[in-house]
Amino acid sequence: MGATGGTGATGPQGPQGNVGATGAQGPQGIQGSTGPQGLQGIQGVNGNTGATGLQGIQGNTGPQGNVGATGPQGIQGATGPQGLQGIQGPVGATGGTGATGAQGPQGNVGATGAQGPQGPVGATGPAGPVGCGLANYVVKSTGSSATCSIIYDDGTNVGIGTTGPTQKLDVAGNVKFSGALMPAGLAGNAGQVLKSSGTGLAPTWAGAITASDIYSVESTAGITLTSSWQIVTGESITINNLAVGDRVIIQLSGNAYLETIDQADVDVAPFVNGVMLAIGGYVRFTLDRYWGNTLWQNFASVARYTIPVAGSYTFDVRALMLDYAYGPGSIVTVGGNSTQANEGVLVIYVLKN
């Protein structure tokens, strides 16, 4: 083995390691010696003067000496301190009564005392005048006195203008009122009338037809029928402000005429807002000039309709035909003006609910 080589140069210092945990606290050291006294502080301000002490006891009087020669008058000495106050003397005799002083202001009013017991009821006074000497009449005031009114009450019925009422209220004369008449608490609807329910029972409101509830129109020209529904010219009525439950009676009538030698079926029906009323008002008939001699046909029907929703409704009459075409083809007319025999009529009756 060869000789050990020389020590190489010290390498660079490695990075510092993490700081170790703090060690436990050591014991407390011995107390040091007291330091030198500090400098004297600045003198404080003088305190307040204390209270004056008590006067000393007076000394004994010495023996009187021989009278010496009168010397010159000395300077007047200072006045000695005032002696103690003597004991209070006895109270003197009471002096005479002085004059009465002026009256003082009035004091506050004292609280109200408790109410005394009620006195006995006095005797009943004499009866006053009746004011109406007729039995069963209701008394009324004239403003200065009492008198008989026109109201008669026999204990069972009341009469106004009559002394023989036969009902709970019997009025001899006209009756005027500005409010509603309300049998069973009901005022009814506009256009209704009262309907009797029998003896002893309140009447009820029922629909009625008045002149203002009747609407009518007539056709103004004829139409030539096709296989599609057409409105008969002039036969259309619009009614506003119909109420839910109003009942409408629709009555229609007219004539149809077959001009050609052929045969055709004719349908006529009422419509409400464009919808056909197939029940009650629908009419079908046959015109025949090919096999028979039916040129004219009068028709009429009546339908009813109950208003489902309040509002305006349009009622009209419509017609169509089914052509059998045995001949040249059917030409059928319905409706006409007031100078023609096939003029049609539409009448509407409204029964208010």
What would you note in describing this structure?
The chain is mainly beta. Helices cover 0% and strands 31% of the residues. It contains no helices and 17 strands. The chain has strands at 137-141, 146-153, 158-160, 169-171, 193-195, 204-206, 214-218, 223-224, 230-242, 247-258, 263-272, 275-276, 283-288, 296-306, 311-323, 332-334, 345-351. The strands form four sheets. Strands 7, 8, 10, 14, 16 and 17 form a six-stranded antiparallel beta sheet that branches. Strands 9, 11, 12, 13 and 15 form a five-stranded antiparallel beta sheet that branches. The N and C termini lie far apart (139 Å). 13% of the residues are buried.
Mean pLDDT: 84
Tell me the radius of gyration.
68 Å
What about the largest sheet?
Answer: 6 strands, antiparallel
What coarse outline follows from CA principal-axis ratios?
flat
Q: Report the total helices.
A: 0
Structural class assignment: mainly beta
Relative helix content: under 10%
* pLDDT < 50 stretches: none
Find the count of extended strands (DSSP E, 2+ residues): 17
Run of helices and strands: EEEEEEEEEEEEEEEEE
How widely separated are the two ends?
Answer: 139 Å
What percent of residues are in strands?
A: 25-35%
